[in-house]
Design brief:
The chain is of the alpha/beta class. Helices cover about 15% and strands about 25% of the residues. It is built from 4 helices and 8 strands, in the order βαββββαβββαα. The chain has helices spanning about 15-25, 90-100, 155, 185-190; strands at about 10-15, 30-40, 40-45, 55-60, 85, 110, 115-120, 130-135. A 4-stranded mixed sheet has the order 1-4-3-2, covered by helices on one side. The protein has a 4-stranded mixed sheet with strand order 5-8-7-6, with helices on one face. The chain is globular.
């Protein structure tokens, strides 16, 4: 099995795409690389890094979530806590803090978690965001660590995938490798408004 390349995109929801564009593109500085849409539907993608993006559906009836402290336990149905975005140097954390606060957004202080330094905030949709700078000498990608005081037996087996537990599969015949139609026609038949913007639609 091949290696994963990162998170292609996280899919979030907003009721105000313009406010979301202002935050992610203009305040945080992430390029808006793709905007799909038709009446009543938008799906926009922002570039976090060469391999990672965050995307938003615009759903007019969705409401921003109530702000919840990052990592604070909750009860009941729940699937998502926060997004952590890596930064290249630790000085960026204080720069982001200044920019967000100047734009009227709350930010935490910079917190030392040992393997990362973190800054916390929220986007206009109530999505909890963490900005993280990796501390090189404690990088778990280079040297994995199990520091849990009470790890399970399964966790103690080590960091590498236990391939023997993976279900066996056989090669699919080419006739079963079918790609079904989705939204490709937009890329072939729709006007790109960033090219020749003066042309009529």
């Amino acid at each position: 099995m091949g290696r994963y390349k990162g998170i292609h995109h996280l899919a979030m929801a907003t009721n105000n795409m313009d406010e979301t564009i202002r935050f992610w593109r203009d305040i945080l500085g992430m390029r808006l690389i793709l905007g799909l849409g038709k009446p009543g539907y938008r799906h926009y993608f922002f570039e976090i890094s060469p391999n990672d993006t965050i995307a938003f559906f615009e759903w007019p009836q969705v409401k921003p979530v109530e702000e919840k402290d990052h990592g604070f336990p909750v009860k009941g149905p729940f699937v998502f806590d926060h997004v952590s975005i890596g930064v290249e140097c630790k000085e960026q954390l204080w720069e982001i803090k200044q920019i967000l606060e100047a734009a009227g957004y709350w930010t935490s202080e910079v917190i030392d978690h040992g393997f990362i330094l973190s800054l916390y905030s929220f986007d206009p949709n109530g999505i909890a965001i963490e900005f993280s700078w990796a501390v090189e000498e404690f990088d778990p990608r280079k040297k994995p660590r199990l520091l849990d005081v009470s790890p399970s037996a399964l966790a103690k087996e080590g960091p590498d995938p236990q391939v023997a537990r993976r279900p066996s599969i056989s090669s699919l015949p080419e006739t079963e490798c079918v790609v079904y139609p989705g939204e490709r026609d937009q890329f072939e038949n729709r006007k790109n408004h960033w090219e020749n913007p003066d042309e009529q639609s």
